[in-house]
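Question (not urgent): is this output format expected?
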Amino acid sequence: MKIHEECGVFGVMTREAADVAKICYFGLYALQHRGQESCGIVVNKDGIFHSRKDLGLVSEVFTQDSLSRLPQGTIAVAHARYGTTGATSRRNCQPLEVNHQKGHMAVAHNGNLSNAAVLRSKLELSGAIFHTTSDTETIAYIITRERLTSPSIEVAVSRAMNTLDGAYSLVIMSPRKLICARDPYGFRPLCYGRMENGSYVVASESCAIAAVGAEFIRDVEPGEILVFTPDGVVSHREHCAKKQPRLCIFEYIYFARPDSVIEGISVHAARQRAGMALADAHPVEADVVIGVPDSGLDAALGYSQASGIPYGIGLIKNKYIGRTFIAPDGRSDQVRIKLAPIRDTVDGKRVVLIDDSIVRGTTCGRIVRLLREAGAREVHMRVTAPPFLFPCYYGTDIDSQENLIACHHSIPEICRMIGADSLGYLPVERLSCLTGHRHYCSACFSGKYPTAVPEAGCKNRFERPLPHKAVTKDQQKS
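Got this back:
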């Protein structure tokens, strides 16, 4: 089992009508790693919205024919979803479209609200009717409510941010504007760039900015609202610097693409530094260092550089297994199909195996077994994240301690369970080596949450609204 992130968001604004759907298509392709359940694009042509949304990968939902049916326009927003809140169904596909008394709005959202259940309950008691089970509809309701009494959409977004708590990177389209906003903690990344023709693009990661041929300008700051119009970009900063920034550290460990740069830090370089820190914290005598594709490869290179143990390609990933892959009855067979060991690299060798995380322990145990079957004499497991011990409420599908192996077993016990000769996690106090500072969220490792958290956080928690419980600093430490 791998940890998954909420989604990827993308938006574009051009000065003149253009094939904005195709620009979004390329942007979503670059963000496909952030969500493979569903995707969608909404195009604005002269204030009228045209959309295509469905379950599946970008290549499955957007064929040449379906793309051609979306008209040229001046604004578009797009979304690739992995749902950590709400069921996998067409009703939860984004961007979410809203029609209200003052016009139209389309919203694409990355993250989870920590107070969504309370907000939703209040809205339902006031007469609101929900059609989805995602946080995004709650956000859309609150922005719409504020818009009815606000002079502009950006003022409505700013007022809504006074109510929203938790993680949200938003890309919003109105009939005349493209707006993006990032929560005051900056849990999830968001950035923007400019194309040669003056068009602006907004994306979850810089890799998507590059994919459409745009020049990266900068990250959207925590708490910042940007408004894009044909006249340029306006920044609203009334929510900036109200909170200590807390970007999710797992963006650097696993979520983001290695060619992305987040908050001025190269993801590739951050993972290399994590591997170097692992080599320092958990040295071992071995013959070769290999990484589990894809996020373990950069860290394996760093471990090799720091330890002097040669780096090798020991596992090959089948890149052609998509959402439509028919899984075999046994999960071990599924691992064999997705990953294949290179016998020449590991046969008779003492192997250091680098991966980004251990959740339940089942997948890494099968990988260790594959390496032994390929002739590995020893397998020493090294993990670029500390043990997962606490749920995440900000957009990662760590929603319960029940299935987290580290909550129930010691490190020596986990080592025996996965069949490794030794096991070493990156110490939680060494996480700062990835970023060079401590301004990040590591609550899933430490239990120190930046915000109040719900009493429960099951994945489909909106099927039964749950109360919101404040957590004091003393409770966070305990």
